[in-house]
């Protein structure tokens, strides 16, 4: 590999990365007929001329593309750096300490945009983030692919699948040998997928630098799931973990808020600014209690409609705490359902401290602990509402 | 389909469900006369017989949803509750030589104030009180177009003649028989116009009939009637109960009424309101006054609190001071359970269980509960 770089040092710029997934195949000697079976770099000067003659059409085309791309990226990076310094000077800040965050703020200040979609607003980012990366050379100068799975079309992806299958068959063999010796796989060591999730399709695409179809991604998840469920999967924890990512939110959800105590020894939890739509609620839950409820100084009559009342009741009913806690809530902003939803979230969030961890998990699955980020959709010009169109009349 | 019907005797595939639980029965009291009710009957139901209902409440007095429910249940059952019982007890033990006592029922919307008043009215009716009963004041001052004229007799006041005539009909329906029995007569000549006079000694029934037939004079008739009754009560000829539901509407800032010359009329400018206000003055004896303040009778911008001082204001408070405030609270646990038993007995509520949920959702307000159980 190194030799290729050396060979084409004049053509390929330093920036061009060498393929990363190289561990699984032996780098073959690629210097032409004179060099067959020899790995000695000592004679390479002689071959240079020959090699260039033998460079395949595909390789030449690739090199051309790579040079163009690298030149383009260099140009863009240069422009970005100059632009950044310029911007820093305009803002009267030291260009050396001008960070991306400062750039964003400056752009927002200098080009205020009324456009609704954030993607449509002006921005200035490093070119590496703006332009998609390109794959490196997949074949040598004689046109012979490096990768064993080159002809599958998606070598990196199929390599992963291949590895999974290999590991699975190894585990099967291992399990057989265990059973031959009358040993059962250890149940305690068994892996579980709780608290983590598989890499998303986008993540896998980024990892392999290959575009995947939904069907292919499904295959990947089925395969890795099967590996995980194997009774001896603990042997390949690290391998499996490569394709897992932790559910960060789960951890935050399971950790309950700190409990405080009133003067007469009642435990209580206060949650501030529980959001729903544009309503915000401060909720305090006292435990033990008798089922008293106060919303802005009123009872459940604060809400006239049943839907809102049921929203308040739901977390209490779900955890069977209707008559075991007292609730005090102040709520502001928003409308009726927003207010009710905000209080509901506050109640469920503070109830975590007073219920069993299993119940918290059940609450999480029921969606009680999920913040609702949905907002009102804007009205569009030329339409009656957000989605509703005017009645179409021919004339 | 036909074949299927023949097989299972049902038009649809739904199979008739067997009652899987014992349908509970509500606890009731046998005492038909509210005068007999005591603390043993608390939170029990008693039934008013249809004849009495039609003679007291035929032309108003019971809330409309409740009336609908009574037609469904085919009986008018009221729950004996503490506020009404307290007032009845107080009415029984009152000293009628002293000026009329004033009671004020107040409470949240849907807590049962009007039905408590109905209970009291039933007591008064069966104890031969004359009922000077205004079913719901906002009916006078709100809802639809009404004919409003400036009063010919009282300067600056407006009459609502048809409504007044309607009320006189209501009064006559409630008290006609009793007035005949007591044989009350007018104490002076009333000159309505050049040709129309009511001489001294006319029976009050005839006097009222004149007001009904000549709606133009209905408002004045109402006023004179009140004065006559007050005088009769003070002379110990009869007893009277003044009952006003939605009393706080007298003190609202505005009404929906407009005279023909397009002047907006405030409640205080309506002659009937002035009559009503004079009815709650306790310058007479041998009777009692029961008022009900309700957030619903207030303007919809002033319903934050159900407390009387908020609803009737300082002016109204001074007008009726001193009075005995009686809070109509939400149902107690026993009352709540008995109410649900009653609904289950009547199959108004078709499923057992979920009582705690209902308790939470309705906060034990009976009107809310009735509405909530309708769909269950």
TrEMBL record, chain A:
PANTHER family: RIBOSOMAL PROTEIN S9, SMALL RIBOSOMAL SUBUNIT PROTEIN US9M. Belongs to the universal ribosomal protein uS9 family. GO terms for biological process: translation. It comes from Cinara cedri. Its main location: mitochondrion. The lineage of its organism: Eukaryota, Metazoa, Ecdysozoa, Arthropoda, Hexapoda. One of its GO terms (molecular function) is structural constituent of ribosome. Residues 376-395 are annotated as: Disordered. Keywords: Mitochondrion, Ribonucleoprotein, Ribosomal protein, Transit peptide. It holds the Pfam family Ribosomal_S9. The keyword Mitochondrion applies. This is Small ribosomal subunit protein uS9m. GO terms for cellular component: mitochondrial inner membrane; mitochondrial small ribosomal subunit. It comes from the Eukaryota. InterPro entries: Ribosomal_Su5_D2-typ_SF (IPR020568), Ribosomal_uS9 (IPR000754), Ribsml_uS5_D2-typ_fold_subgr (IPR014721). It is found in: Mitochondrion.
Automatic annotation (TrEMBL), chain B:
It is found in: Mitochondrion. GO terms for cellular component: mitochondrial small ribosomal subunit. It comes from the Eukaryota. Keywords: Mitochondrion, Ribonucleoprotein, Ribosomal protein, Transit peptide. PANTHER family: MITOCHONDRIAL 28S RIBOSOMAL PROTEIN S29 (PTHR12810), SMALL RIBOSOMAL SUBUNIT PROTEIN MS29 (PTHR12810:SF0). The keyword rRNA-binding does not apply. One of its GO terms (biological process) is apoptotic process. Belongs to the mitochondrion-specific ribosomal protein mS29 family. InterPro entries: P-loop_NTPase (IPR027417), Ribosomal_mS29 (IPR019368), Ribosomal_mS29_met (IPR008092). GO terms for molecular function: structural constituent of ribosome. This is Small ribosomal subunit protein mS29. The keyword RNA-binding does not apply.
